[in-house]
Design a protein that fits this description.
- It is found in: Golgi apparatus, trans-Golgi network; Recycling endosome.
- Keywords: Endosome, Golgi apparatus, Lipid transport, Protein transport, Transport.
- This is Vacuolar protein sorting-associated protein 51 homolog.
- Helix 3 crosses helix 5 (200-226) and helix 15 packs antiparallel against helix 16.
- The chain is flat.
- The N and C termini lie far apart (144 Å).
- It has helices at residues 12-26, 53-63, 66-175, 179-195, 200-226, 231-243, 248-275, 317-344, 357-385, 393-413, 419-463, 483-505, 519-522, 524-548, 562-591, 602-637, 652-669, 684-687, 694-705, 713-722, 737-757, 763-780, 787-803, 813-822.
- It is mainly alpha-helical.
């Protein structure tokens, strides 16, 4: 067997396999203990205790073929040989271990014999030493009591010598300013002197020491009061005074009183700086004006106030905050640290521990700090309130950041103090006030921009000598841009200014600003402050201020130019269409607005803007209609229609009405789309007067021509109105040119109709009305959505004139057409 001659350590894996097989055979676990296993009762289990070879062989012969039996025999032979080999290896290993154990036991026998001899020798030596020590103790026993007595006498004499020399030693320490040594020496002797104070000699020493210590305490008080020493010397001074039974409360009050005088000087300096720095707003434009031609609504440089420029002052707010932080806050931190080291953080031992000094001193420190901080905060708030200009917000934000950052040192030095939270409240109030200032500045900027727009709208009348404000046909070089350019410039200026304001306000939430991580600046400042308080409020202000232009009294719409109403209506409509959504989206993305609190939805703002646009456009229609109506009313009221001459041409006022209507059409077309018209007949201009055809006139006016016929024209007219479509004169207009012109023409013709109903006409007066109405029909049908509306109103005008005519003899249609074509 080759495996029997192989060394056991040559193949570790082979050894482990063999061991595992043996352990498995003997039923051992990893610790070498026999594992309890259920015994197999199967007689065919070759590894079981109840194995029966005959049964096993019979089973194999019955179940296996000859080839399987041969294979099973070969496998069993291999296992037997392997087990024999493993058994030989195991015996060899155990034999080597037995040999090694025998050698070890033989060596231990020799070592223990030598050690036993050494222990016997050591025991003899210890016995001799014990006997010698007992002999020495017996010899010196009598002298030991005398030595102890002499040592006690020597110690007592040294103490007495220390007591008698104590006054001189204290004086010497006082001269050398060795106050700590003097206090330590006096504390060592104080109890003894107090105990033997009934003896005259000790009484005298006690009195001398008391006088000297009073002088020392006086010098320590003076040194503490002066405060010119270093922190270490001051700390030592306080400790010595406390050891001399100086009242701790009185020391705290003196320390804080001395610090109060220094802080008073700092606060007075800051207050004097406030009084010596008057703040005045500088004049100038809201924005820098680069080119009057390219920026038609750039606010003029003649504005009296400028909400976007910083005030001129002796020192800016950053310098003021720096001075306050470097002088007041730094000194306050030093005082807090020194005070805590002296009275609060110092280990209390002996009698001082029972006085609970830290608690008392901490209370006084909190009151002292809160009082001074309140005065300092009032000065800071006064200086912040003087920051009226909003052109450079970075200076204020940097100042507030520095102010907030330096106050955090107090929170670390003095936990539980309300000073840092009060400082944060000042920063929050400053941010809120800043938003209000920016809103006010934006409102002022908007008003000034509208003022410049009004000036630009009035400029064509001054420079072009009667040219229309539409701007479409102005040819003079100094004429201002047209309405689309004014609208674009105004919208861009407002949007750019709002973006600039948002960029300035965004500085409050910059990552490098310490207070930007406060809950207010992460939530309420962004949602309620910037979004609602600034952006939404400004949009609402634009809509509200625009609606105010519709509340002006007077027939001519007050002093508001109609073109401004039209421009503002388009501006509000643009806001409803896209601008509001863009601004609010920009704000939400820039400030990461989280709508935890209720905010104004975009749809509500768009609805408000659309309402303002609708109201402005309705008012524009009303104003323009009233302007044309005023001309028609005066032309009707100032003419003698009974005695007028035979008409030869169209009246000038009708030409002016057509000219103004055309001008309005051009003006509205610059800002609004065309709109939808009903299909026009191919001969609208020709057929316009067909409503006054001879056949229809005969129906309406025949009774007037025949004296015997009854006067039933009113009945015919009323029957005709019953079957006519009702016309709503002041109905809301749509956002297109056709609807606007239709509204204006309806108001104008309705006024013309009502004025005609108040007059009495002669023959030629009626014919003049016929000529005027035919002329209006030739041109006005082009501007309205439905030409039948113009037909109906003009028909009513002519019919009303005929009813009120003393001699209703209408002019021939051909003559009317000749006169109108010639006019």
């Amino acid at each position: 067997m080759s495996s029997a001659t192989t060394p056991p350590d040559s193949d570790p894996s082979q050894r482990r396999r063999v061991h595992s097989m043996l352990k498995h055979y003997y039923g051992l676990n990893e610790e070498g203990k026999v594992t309890e296993q259920a015994e197999s009762l199967d007689p065919c289990d070759i590894n079981g205790p109840h194995f029966d070879p005959e049964v096993y062989l019979n089973k194999l012969r019955m179940e296996c073929s000859l080839g399987e039996l041969m294979d099973h025999e070969s496998c069993m032979v291999k296992q037997i040989r392997s087990l024999d080999s493993d058994m030989q290896t195991l015996v060899y290993e155990n034999y080597n271990k037995f040999i090694s154990a025998t050698d070890t036991i033989r060596k231990m026998k020799n070592d223990f014999k030598k050690m036993e001899d050494e222990m016997d020798c050591l025991s003899a030596n210890m016995a001799a030493i014990t006997e010698f020590s007992a002999h020495i103790s017996g010899t010196l026993q009598d002298q030991h009591a005398q030595i102890t007595k002499l040592s006690g006498v020597h110690t007592l004499l040294r103490k007495l010598q220390f007591l008698f020399e104590l006054p001189a030693r204290l004086n010497k320490c006082l001269e050398l300013q060795a106050y700590a040594q003097a206090v330590s020496a006096h504390r060592r002797a104080r109890c003894v002197l107090q105990q033997y104070s009934h003896m005259p000699s000790f009484r005298g020493i006690q009195d001398d020491c008391h006088v000297i210590m009073e002088q020392l305490a006086q010098q320590l008080r003076q040194k503490f009061r002066d405060g010119g020493s270093s922190a270490k010397d001051l700390s030592e001074c306080v400790e010595l005074l406390l050891q001399l039974d100086e009242p701790a409360e009185e020391l705290c009050d003196k320390f804080l009183s001395h610090a109060q005088s220094r802080f008073e000087a700092d606060l007075q300096g800051l207050e004097a700086e406030l009084k010596d720095s008057p703040v005045t707003d500088t004049g100038g434009g809201l924005v820098q004006k680069t080119n009057p031609g390219s920026n038609p609504v750039s606010p003029s440089s003649s504005s009296t106030t400028n909400p976007f420029l910083s005030p001129t002052a002796g020192t800016d707010i950053l310098e003021f905050i720096d001075r306050g932080c470097n002088e007041f806050v730094s000194s306050l931190c030093l005082v807090i640290a020194s005070y805590q080291e002296l009275f609060i953080n110092r280990p209390q031992e002996g009698e001082l521990a029972s006085k609970n000094i830290p608690e008392m001193a901490n209370g006084k420190l909190h009151v002292f700090v809160d009082t001074l901080a309140a005065r300092y905060f009032s000065l800071v708030e006064r200086r912040i309130q003087e920051e009226k200009g909003v052109s450079d917000n970075s200076l204020l934000v940097r100042a507030l950041d520095r102010f907030h950052r330096r106050l955090q040192a107090i929170s670390k030095l003095l936990p539980g103090s309300a000073v840092p939270s009060q400082g944060t409240e000042i920063v929050v109030r400053a941010a809120r006030e800043r938003i209000k200032q920016y809103l006010s500045a934006l409102q002022t900027f908007y008003h000034d921009s509208l003022t410049d727009v009004r000036q630009a709208l009035a400029a064509p009348r001054q420079s072009a000598g009667g040219a229309s404000v539409s701007g479409g046909g102005a040819t003079s070089k100094d004429a201002t841009p047209s309405l689309p350019e004014l609208l674009t410039s105004l919208s861009n200026f407002i949007l750019n200014q709002l973006k600039s304001v948002l960029a300035s306000v965004h500085l409050f939430t910059a990552k490098d600003i310490t207070f930007s991580n406060k809950p207010y600046f992460k939530g309420e400042f962004c949602s309620q402050g910037v979004r609602e308080g600034l952006v939404v409020s400004f949009i609402k202000f634009i809509c509200q201020s625009s609606r105010q232009y519709c509340e002006s009294a007077g027939d001519r719409g007050g002093s508001t130019p109609p073109a401004l109403l039209l421009l503002l209506s388009r501006l509000c409509l643009d806001y409803e269409t896209s601008t509001i959504s863009y601004i609010l989206t920009l704000t939400d993305e820039q400030f990461l607005v989280q709508h935890h609190t209720p905010v104004t939805p975009v749809t509500a703002l768009c609805a408000e803007a659309r309402e303002a646009a609708q109201k402005l456009l309705n008012h524009y229609v009303k104003v323009q209609g009233l302007i044309i109506s005023q001309m028609l009313r005066k032309s009707v009221e100032t003419r003698d229609w009974v005695n007028t001459i035979e008409p030869r041409n169209v009246r000038a006022v009708m030409k002016r009405v057509v000219e103004d209507t055309t001008s309005i059409d051009v003006q509205v077309g610059l800002l609004y789309e065309e709109g939808v018209r009903k299909a026009h007949s191919s001969d609208s201009s020709k057929r316009t007067f067909s409503v006054y055809s001879s056949s229809r006139q005969q129906i309406r006016y025949a009774p007037s021509y025949t004296p015997s016929a009854p006067m039933d024209t009113n009945l015919l007219s009323n029957i005709h109105k019953l079957f006519s479509e009702r016309i709503d004169i002041f109905s809301p207009v749509e956002f297109n040119k056709v609807s606007v012109l239709t509204g204006i023409i309806k108001i104008s013709l309705k006024t013309f109709l009502e004025c005609v109903r108040l007059r009495t006409f002669g023959r030629y007066g009626l014919q003049q009305i016929q000529v005027d109405c035919h002329y209006l029909q030739m041109y006005l049908w082009r501007f309205v959505s439905d030409e039948n509306l113009v037909h109906f109103l003009l028909d009513e005008i002519v019919g009303s004139a005929a009813h009120r005519c003393l001699d209703p003899s209408p002019m021939e249609q051909s003559v009317i057409e000749v006169i109108c074509e010639r006019g």
